[in-house]
Amino acid sequence: MAIMGGSLATKDVATLDENRAKSRFGVAYVRAVCSQAGVGFGETSPDEDVLAVDGQVEFAVAPAKVQVKCTGRFRISGGATATWPIDDSWHRNWKRSGLPVYFVLVIVDPDKRVSWLHHHDAATLHHAAAFWVRVDTLATGENIVVPKTQRLTADTLRLWAEEVEASFTSGRGGGPVV
Fold first, then answer.
1. Domain ranges, ordered by start, for the chain
2. Secondary structure class of 177 (helix, strand, coil)
3. What is the maximal distance between C-alpha atoms in the chain?
4. Got the DSSP string for 14-68?
5. DSSP, residue by residue, 121-175
6. Neighbouring C-alpha atoms within 13 Å toward the C-beta of 10
7. How confident is the model over 16-25, as a mean pLDDT?
8. Which CA distances in Å does 146 have to 43, 81, 138?
9. Residues near 57 by Cβ (< 8 Å), separated by ≥ 6?
10. Most buried of the four, 36, 81, 161, 166, by CB within 10 Å?
11. What is the 3-state secondary structure (H, E, C) of 68-133?
12. Residue 167 dihedral angles phi and psi, to the nearest 5°
């Protein structure tokens, strides 16, 4: 089956609807950043997503919890923030966590599945970007406001690792056993 001009030359082979495809792409994007940083990402089983997290970034001390959303509703370069509605049950679960919980918004721009990846001779490029915000500290009733200055990169994961470690010394998460 040849791929020509970014679309399948033969029949459509998709088995995932648009939302499921975005969900998988968002998690794959986060996994790629984790891989670049040299840390693992453990995905929550779909039937066990009861804590409103899609996975954990596996640091040496403890994992950081991550909720991933992927959308084409926003533009990568447009606007200073992206606002996502928060479900009350998510908020309750995140507040109970003794470890940091991060919300990662993967923006696919444009919102056409065939444009999410560009295959060139020298590389395959994502036409997407991810931005993040810590959500276990959000006040009740707030929407999730994701600053576009907080781009998800390998350097971000170093910051998250520091915040996870700090949760053991700041009275949250129990602390080390001595």
1. 16-166
2. coil
3. 63
4. --S-HHHHHHHHHHHHHHHHHHHHT-EEEEPPGGG--SS-SEEEE-SS-EEEEEE
5. SS-EEESEEEEEEE-TTPPTTPPEEEETT-B--HHHHHHHHHHHHHTTTSSSS--
6. 4
7. 93
8. 22, 5, 12
9. 34, 39, 40, 41, 63, 64, 66, 157, 160
10. 161
11. EEEECCCCCCCCCEEEECCCHHHHHHHHHCCCCEEEEEEEECCCCHHHCEEECCCCEEECEEEEEE
12. -65, -20
* Tokens representing residue 154 in the block: 């390998």
CA separation (Å) from 114 to 5, 17, 21? Answer: 10, 13, 11
50-78 pLDDT, tens digit per residue, is 899 999 999 999 999 999 999 999 999 98
What is 16-166's CATH number, 3.30.750.24, 3.40.50.720, 3.40.1350.10, 3.30.70.1230?
Answer: 3.40.1350.10
Residue 175's pLDDT is 43
Return the residue matching tokens 């590389």: 123
Q: Which residues contact 144 (CB under 8 A, 6 or more apart)?
A: 83, 84, 85, 86, 103, 133, 135, 138
Residues in the chain, overall count: 178
